[in-house]
DNA sequence: GCGCAATTTTGCAGCGAGTGCAAGAATTGT
DNA sequence: ACAATTCTTGCACTCGCTGCAAAATTGCGC
């Protein structure tokens, strides 16, 4: 996926996109999300402010380097999981992939992770409140469970809870909570799986 | 609470607040959330645009008539629930109270409900993404469970999942899903209680 | 009532996010 | 090298929201 379409045009676009993402991450890490303007990000990336919005729909997405959730891509992710796996576990894997994309170079990934875990303005944009992602996943989960998403809320509630759980764990970090994200996510999904009762 | 402090000043403030809320609801019901500007809301309420933001922190809050989440108030709500009640059930009751405040006159409440269920821009502002509410509830739930919210994620995950579940049910309505909100919320909380496994 | 203090409203000036549009620059295939 | 396509840029603009200081309103002691 990263080597196909190697025209100059496509390569430049990838470079620009990455430059914007890097610039955004750097600036946010330096001064905090709210103190950084989109103009500054564009300037550091060496591109006009208008161009930033050709690549990302908003500031948050630029910082996250968010790729516009593609249904096919997510379907591929889900299909990659064994059919026998409990749906929650598959969901968790998918969400974690979105959280730290494996196509990144490790250093950038680490920085992204650092920023996500320290900037609370980003949580919502990442997993919570991301209606588009929720809708796509709901559709996919319904399919796998053999349910009609218009008939039963179950798929949607499953997805929403999973996303919320991850976001809660990130929030837990923001508020200085104990444990690594991995540990707390473990705990959270155990709760979802076996019930809060 | 609605009769105390009956000075002219306090009464006028309540009137203005209500006027803004009503204006916002009316306009949004007429034209949709995105098509309504804060200036229009203020104008219909007969106050300056600047005044709107003296009463509400943002457009969404004006439409929702959102009262700034008060820790003490929420504690009172929780304390009103029997101590033996499962925490999820208490949470559900609290969230539902926030969803349709009992201090409203029925007609306004109905309108508010209608708007909430038809305007998807509002879901986030109501329950999801409401970090402040989540933090307060997390604290309270931790207390009731006898846990330290910094030690265990459980309280936070419980709260986040409950909020997410309700938001998911509202979203279910938005997307034309079947069933009343009550039914779907029932189903959702049953899942949370007994687990998704 | 009267006048002073506290509070509220308002206008204004301004910032930052985000968009539509049209002109200009770069890249492509031929 | 030329034309078609695509990307970038600048510009003007809307909208949400904020700070500030002046003006209006209300509360209170007399």
From TrEMBL, chains A, B:
Which residues fall under the DNA-binding region feature?
37-56
Its domain of life reads Bacteria
State whether keyword Zinc-finger applies. Answer: no
Which Gene3D superfamilies does this UniProt record tie to the protein?
Homeodomain-like, Tetracycline Repressor, domain 2
A Pfam family annotated for this UniProt entry: TetR_N
Q: Which residues form the HTH tetR-type domain?
A: 14-74
Q: Does the keyword Transcription apply?
A: yes
Checking InterPro entries in the record gives: DNA-bd_HTH_TetR-type_CS (IPR023772), Homeodomain-like_sf (IPR009057), HTH-type_TetR-like_transc_reg (IPR050109), HTH_TetR (IPR001647), MftR_C (IPR041347)
**Which keywords label this protein?**
DNA-binding, Transcription, Transcription regulation
- Write down the PANTHER family for this protein, in alphabetical order: HTH-TYPE TRANSCRIPTIONAL REGULATOR RUTR, MYCOFACTOCIN BIOSYNTHESIS TRANSCRIPTIONAL REGULATOR MFTR-RELATED
Supply the name of the protein.
Answer: TetR family transcriptional regulator
